[in-house]
Amino acid sequence: MIKIKINPLDVAKGQIDKTIKKLGLDPSIGRILKKPKRSIRVSIPIRKDDGKIEVFDGFRVQHIDSRGPYKGGIRYHPEVNMDEVTALSMWMTWKCAVANIPYGGAKGGVTCNTKELSIGELERITRRYTTMILNNIGPYLDIPAPDMYTNSQTMAWIMDTYSQFQGHLVPECVTGKPIHLQGSKGRSVATAKGLDYCILDAVKCLGMRLKGLRVVVQGFGKVGWNAARFLHNQGCKIIGLGDSTGGISNPQGINPTIVHWHKIETGTVQNFGTSKNITNEELLETECDILIPAALGNQITIKNAANIETRILAEGANGPTTSEASEILAEKDIFMIPDILANSGGVTVSYFEWVQNLHREQWSEKMVFDKLKNQIDCAFSEVYDKMKQYETDMRTAAFMVGIERVVACKQTLGLWP
Ligand code: GLU
Q1: How many whole angstroms separate alpha carbon 194 and alpha carbon 205?
Q2: Domain boundary, last residue among 163, 182, 201
């Protein structure tokens, strides 16, 4: 990954300023939007397997709840900090507004390296973290979900801990649960599915044909590998893939499912058949038709933006492109599907999970994907229309749609007292 120190909170605040100006709104509204309503910082002491005590830092930031309860994932990563979690909570607010689901934005995180923790240690961290934020989460208040290096097992522990304190099972307090514990069918691949639907819409708008398009995917976690698999199955040629250890390229095309098994066996996507090993920098600069950053934030910066050679940029990750880089890409006429639209499939199916839980229902996978397609297509065309109307790029248009919706709610609710 390209290491460059950019504070995501500066990026997120800059986006608010720019959008408020573009929408012609009173700058004082921007001052409200740039501060989260509640920021929680906790310390999480746990006993490690070797008997020693270690203390981790935990965060939960709740940005705005004018459109509904706070919603957003919890990430476990060594670089998690308050500024990053705050920026991510803001992006959740705009994402839920663009997707038009009745939620506000939140994000949580624990600064830790899951690769160095046992399953028991992860469970103790999760349960202690949940206990520390217990009074500030709940089905009508703030509903956590998975994010980087957390999964359905993490959500099951959160649900169990929350439910123990309530005295009964409360499935609707968290989403992204295992299916047998009232999770939703389709949730585990929902972000990649939503990304796929957005790409189909973009390809159509640009008058292209999906079959044969060359795809590069950075990140081989749940989003990256499933997106690569879906596109491969639809006739695209995956010419580059990468994970945190490096990348591989092959102009003849790579079968992502075989790479998936190779990664399980060897721990890396590299050294795969006749593919060439490349660095992450080279991966991002590979000439292609669709580039999917699906790893960490701040990957496309002022340093490499001019070298990005793609027709479509579909952001699976949150905040992979800095503001300056985004302007360079827009000048190069790269069609950007920004994160708050491109990866909104995850939180949209989280919303479906919550609705199913509240109604004690279980929908079929077909019903989930049909509803998701409808929701994504609506969001995409609203952003696309805004882009045309204001003669701007898709990123600016997405922020305009999201921020306009939130501000409308805020203004009608009023400022009290
Ligand atoms: N962590 C995911 C995101 O960044 C999903 C959040 C959710 O489902 O609440 O959108």
Answers
A1: 17
A2: 182
Tokens of 184: 């939703």
**What is the band of 330 on the pLDDT scale with cuts at 50, 70, 90?**
very high
Tally of domains in the chain: 2
Closest atom of ligand 1 to CA, residue 344: 10
Query: Does 406 fall in a domain?
Result: no
In this structure, the answer to whether residues 59 and 151 fall within a common structural domain is yes
Confidence of residue 5 (pLDDT cuts 50, 70, 90): confident
CA distance 372 to 225: 20
- Any residues with Cβ below 6 Å from ligand 1, and which? 71-73, 95, 145, 147, 175, 318, 343, 346-347, 350
Residue in 71, 95, 107, 222 annotated catalytic? 107
Please tell me the residue having the least CA distance from ligand 1 atom 9.
72
Cα(97) to centroid of ligand 1, in Å?
A: 13
Indicate whether 2 pLDDT > 60: no
Alpha helices in 70-211 (DSSP H): 82-98, 119-133, 152-166, 190-205
- Three-class secondary structure of residue 32 per DSSP: helix
User: Looking at the DSSP assignment, which residues form a beta bridge with residue 41?
Assistant: 59
Q: Are 185 and 372 in contact (CB under 8 A)?
A: no
CATH number at residue 132: 3.40.50.10860
Distance 147 CA to ligand 1 centre (A): 6
Please give the model's pTM, rounded to 2 decimal places.
0.97
Q: Are residues 328 and 196 part of one domain?
A: yes
Residues 159-186 as b or e (16 or more Cβ within 10 Å = b)? bbbbeeeeeeebbbbbbbbeeeebbbbb
Residue 107 is a catalytic residue: yes
Domain residue limits at 100: 37-182
Give the distance (Å) from ligand 1 centre to CA of residue 65: 16
- Please report which confidence band the pLDDT of residue 146 belongs to, taking 50, 70 and 90 as the band edges: very high
CATH number at residue 215: 3.40.50.720
